[in-house]
Amino acid sequence: MSTINKPILVIDGLNFFLRHFMVNQTVTLGGELVGGVVGFVKGVGSLASLLHPEQIIVVWEQGGPSPRRKHIYSEYKANRATSKALQSVYRNDGKIMPNADGKNKVFQLQLLAKALGNLPICQIYLPDTEADDIIAYIVKRKLQGSSQTKIVVSNDKDFYQLLEDPTVRIYDPARKILIDEAYVLKTFGISPRNITLARAVAGDPSDNLNGVAGVGLKTIAGRFPDIKRTDIDLDLTWIKEASTEALNESKKPPKCFSSIISEMSVVERNWKLMYLDTNCLASTQISKVDYKLENFQATSNRLDFIKTFVAADISFSQDLDLAFSATRSLVRQNLATSKVDCT
User: Fold this and answer.
1) Domains of the chain by start residue, with CATH
2) What is the rounded distance in angstroms from the CA atom of residue 302 to the CA atom of residue 15?
3) Which of 41, 50, 86, 309 could be 62's S-S partner, Cβ–Cβ 3.0 to 4.6 Å?
C-alpha cells in the first residue's frame, strides 16, 4: 500500500455502511443503535490514515435493483429485501430530507449523510440506480486516462472486472486487503478482464442469478485455459465456440461443454446483468454525476461535525475526532484543485 501515492477512494456507501450496521453495537445515550454511523465514520478515518487519499467519494444507493436490470430479468435480486432507506433520506434533487422515516436504519443513514456533509467527502446518490453502475462510470469513464490510482472500497466481487485497468485497486474492508489483477489471477486462475464472462457462466446466488448447472469458477479456469489471458477480451461467442470445439475433439468430453452450449441464453442474460459500464445509466444520470463531481468543493467543519453527534445523543469520542482530523487533510491537499481531475 505504501507504493500508492494519494489515490482517489470511491466507497460503495451502502455496502460499507451495512458492514458496520450489522456488527457495531454502539448506542446513543438513550439506547438507540448508531453503530452503522459510528463505524462508518471511524472506518473512513482509518482508510484516510492508511491510504492517504487525495479525494474521497461515497456513492449511495437505495439497496434494490435498477429498473433497467429488472427489465432484463424480473427475478434479479429478488432474494433481497429492498431497502427504501435512501429514498426516505434523500429528496429527488439529492438533498437530505429533514423529516425521514423514524426506523433505525433510516435514522442512521440520515445521520451519517449529515455527518459526512461536514467532511471533505463528495456524496453521490441517484434514485433507482445501483452504486455499482455509478462507481464503474467514475472509474472507467470519468477518470479514464488518468494515471492516478483509483481504489474502490467494497467487498462486492462485481468490481473485480475493473481491475483490468492497472491504475485500479479494490480494498476489501472485511478482509482488510488491497486487491489487484495479480490477486484475482492467483485466486481464481482468471484474469479480471475475463472474470465477468466466467461469472456469467457460473452465476451469482447473491444476486439471484443461476448459472450453468455444475459449472463453477474452478471448472471454468481448468477447462478454458485462455480465460486467464490478460492480453485479450474473451466474449460470449468465444466461450460457445471453445465449448463446441472441445465437444468435437473428444469422444468423451466433460459435461460442462455441452451444458454451456445448451444454456447459452442464461450466460448471455447474466453477462448483460453483470457487465459494468454506462449501459444501465441514462445520459441525464451521467450528467448529474458529472455535475456533482465537477462542482464539489472540499471543505470541513469540525464544530458542525461535533454538533451532529451531540444532537443525536452520541458521545463524541476521540476516535471520531481522529477520523475528522484524518479526512481534514484532504482540504489542505485540494485547496487549489478540489474538483475531480479528469485529465
Assistant:
1) 8-185+277-333 (3.40.50.1010), 188-274 (1.10.150.20)
2) 26
3) 86
